[in-house]
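TL;DR need structure tokens for one chain.
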Amino acid sequence: AASAPTVRPPDRPTAPGGQGGDGTETAEERLRKKSTPLVRKIAAEHRVDISTIPGTGHAGRVTKQDILGFIEHGAPASPAHAPARLPASAAVEHPVVEAWPGDRVEPMSKIRKITADHMIQSRRISAHVTSFFEVDYSRVAELRRKHKQAAAERGVNLTYLAFIAKVCADHLKKHRVVNAAVSGDNVIYRAEVNIGIAVALDWGLIVPVVKRADELSLLGLARAINDLGERARSKKLSPDEIQRGTFTITNPGVFGSYAGVPIINQPQVAILGVGAIEKRPRVVTLPDGADTI
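>> reply
TL;DR here they are.
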């Protein structure tokens, strides 16, 4: 690592209370306000000038992570307001919690740990704004009822998710801003429409990707979703099949939830969460203008 600069002496003689002789704030007092005793101790041990490190804490305070990152890499740590510059593999520190008598302690699976860290980083990187829409599935339900048997005879399970994925694939071509990624100060509008489908497993969450989903028919999409889901559950996916997604669909509705607030799958810019599909009363207007339930 590059040699770190040494601690500089205060700008001027320090009066009691950390104020200069003329009552102005000294460099020593600024550093004290800008850091904690632990950070100053680490800086002194490694002969690091805290004033050269951009602080990512409250009001620009230099945190323990800032000083350690500076010492390790010989450069300032990434500011908290620009987390997109954090390395993708940066681990998230979780607090250690005491186990009580009778508790069972077991390590997280690797995929669960990676997912947890990935989601926490996504919250830091992207401003998450959630909107909810109710959609009348009556006509979709009727289409599915009419064609489900014929699809099954061709070895395809025609699910509601296939209809949703098909509509998304068609409209992502029209609304490229949703089929995109942010890279620094640039926006990358993806040419391909690759839809990730989140699959919940006993040991964690995985998102296999349907490549070029916009080029597939409804049955083709249904077949691809079924195949990827089955191979995800049997741990038979290749690394390439969980990469290069441009948009993600997650379906917490299968667990009965009315709605969910999913976290964006980086480096994508949007995610669709599907709630439960069920019968609900609703006021509708008939062609003659009359309202009915």
